[in-house]
Amino acid sequence: MLNEDPRPDDLPDAPTGYAALPSAYPPPPGADGATPPAGPGWSTGAAAAGGARPGRSWVRPVLASVAVVAVIAVVALAVWRIGNPPPVAQPQPRTPASTSGPASPSPTAGTPTTGNPAAQGYPAALAAFYTQKLDWAPCSDNAKHRCATMEVPVDYAKPNGERFTLALRKAPATDPAKRLGSLVINPGGPGGSGVEYAQYASFVFSPAVRAAYDVVGFDPRGIGASSPVRCLTDSDMDLLFSADPTPDSPAERSTLLGDVDGVTKRCAARGGERAMHMSTTEVARDMDVMRVLLGDTKLNFFGGSYGTFLGAIYADTFPERVGRMVLDSAMSPNQTEQQEMTYDIQGFESSIDAFIAWCVGRSDCALGTDRAGARQKIVDLLDAVEKKGLTTSKPGLTTIGEGWVGFSIFMCLYSDSSWPTLNKGLAQAFTGKGDILLAKGMSVVERGITGDYAPTTYLQAMIPVRCADWPRASSDPSLVAEQKRAQAAHPLWARMTGELYDNCRTWPTAGRTPKGTTLAQGAGPILVIGNERDPATPIGGTKQLAKDLASGVLLTSDHDGHGTYYAGNSCVDSAVDGYLLRGTAPSDGTTC
Asked: Across the strands, what pairs with 555?
């Protein structure tokens, strides 16, 4: 059964500089010389581990602790709206997915590629990048792991110009005799650290996968330890959370848009040229350089959350170089604004309903025992918070409003292990206090109790990446009218989402234009997996990506939360392992 108490790290008196995340993850001896972090997404004991459904493991999805998907900002901060792509073209016929994926043998990682550049699949102008040598050395925090750096051009159209230096971390295959090659991983965000993701490889992948693959994580360009672009100040980030997300008058709306537009302009000015080159399309090109430097003929890849967007872009750009690719908790690069809204509603409502069903069965449920009235109580709470706020004991945040409260509620839906925290936080909020909810929100974005955000917070990457990856929002009157109807029909979702607008309208460069056609023609089977009740990357988007990929294979899990593989569903784990180890994909549409 699910532990009835919040994790200590979710509470406001956590003994660290951040409300929940420790300032450094200690690496005492373990399978890879590390133990799971005590931050969001992890349980620290069997009693705290089970989910609301039988079979949920204590090994919680690492996606929620290492990186937070961009959709949380779409839904909770109400400042990141995906634009409206052009009308979707008629899809090309799908290539039936075979049940056997391509073999993935590879030479020793780090072997420089030699010979004719054209024969190796890259232009001669990029030879300096594709032929550089990776100098692996023991990582400072774990001698069993290897760390290295590589260089890529800031602008691929100007390969002789400035460069990004990317940080890499490799957890070598534990059984060299079974080694199949490298498995490049990305936890999403955008802004999540793949280096940190690889640090906990033993808690993210099964022993069998760890035996067969060098798990390689990297910090994408401009993020983490990879020539970081830090374009937001602490006050900028606080402004995003303190702004009223549900303006009730033209004046309030003008203030909201002015604040967000100002943050976007300041980010562009501080980030400069490098901030203009943090798109997922460019990161996909970086991954192809990495593939060659690792010595792999094809890219084997595991992407979670926004990392599925990266995997899909790579597969569409380099379909013939796709090896075994797993996209967990997915979203499609072809999503339209209308589709995203539909998926958001479905994902949020299914997740909040699951929490309410769990809560009302308890004697101490903050929402009472009436499932039908529970949602309205949250609506009423948010309306009261908008008017009066909640008091807290945090210096500099003695009162918080809808921004922090809605964000924190949403983050508690990422994993059923945070449901007790949400229940306690709501109970406290009904008394006018917000310490528990604020502690949860601060932990996710790594805001210190003195108001300082960790340099590695994913928020630093949010604007440059999202503004590059998506087209500008449409002002189509019919779409605006549909949004208003949706908000009226779904009042709790409307308050959680807030004002629907495009915060990238003052960004100086254009966004990506989606293809609107079938993706990755010619690639081998790509396994797309997701939970039926995922608030962050709703199952609708996961299903769409599986359809949009020419060789997509869909596998769904009848569970709650964000992150599917190695999260306690043995059926999912077996299917993913069978695909990664033997190239055998499950039947399309399988449900676990």
From this structure: 529, 590
For 221, other C-beta atoms within 10 Å of its C-beta total: 28
Instruction: Say which range, 158-167, 282-291, 402-411, 447-456, has the weakest mean pLDDT.
Output: 447-456
- Name the residue with tokens 């945090």: 394
DSSP E strands: which ranges in 28-125?
A: none
Question: Under 8 Å CB-to-CB from 325, ≥6 apart: which residues?
Answer: 299, 300, 301, 302, 303, 311, 315, 523, 526, 527
Q: Which helix (H) or strand (E) holds 443?
A: helix 435-445
Give me the phi and psi of 229, to 5 degrees please: -100, 115
- DSSP class of residue 46? G
Query: How far is 495 from 505, CA to CA, in rounded Å?
Result: 23
End-to-end CA distance of the chain: 20
Contact by Cβ (8 Å): 117, 540: no
pLDDT in tens, 110-143: 333 344 554 467 889 999 999 999 999 999 999 9
Q: What is the rounded distance in angstroms from the CA atom of residue 266 to the CA atom of residue 555?
A: 42
Q: How confident is the model at residue 35 (pLDDT cuts 50, 70, 90)?
A: low
Bond into 190 cis (ω within 30): yes
User: How many Å apart are CA 218 and CA 207, to the nearest integer?
Assistant: 21
Burial call 158-185: b when 16+ CB within 10 Å, e when fewer? ebeeebbebbbbbbbbbeeeebbbbbbb
CB-based contacts of 145-153 (< 8 A; 24+ apart in sequence): 145/32, 145/33, 145/169, 145/170, 145/171, 145/172, 145/198, 145/199, 146/170, 146/172, 147/195, 148/110, 150/289, 150/290, 150/293, 152/221, 152/285, 152/286, 152/289, 153/126, 153/129
Tell me how far apart the alpha carbons of residues 435 and 306 are, in angstroms, rounded to a whole number.
30
Instruction: Name the residue among 205, 274, 270 with its Cα closest to residue 31.
Output: 205
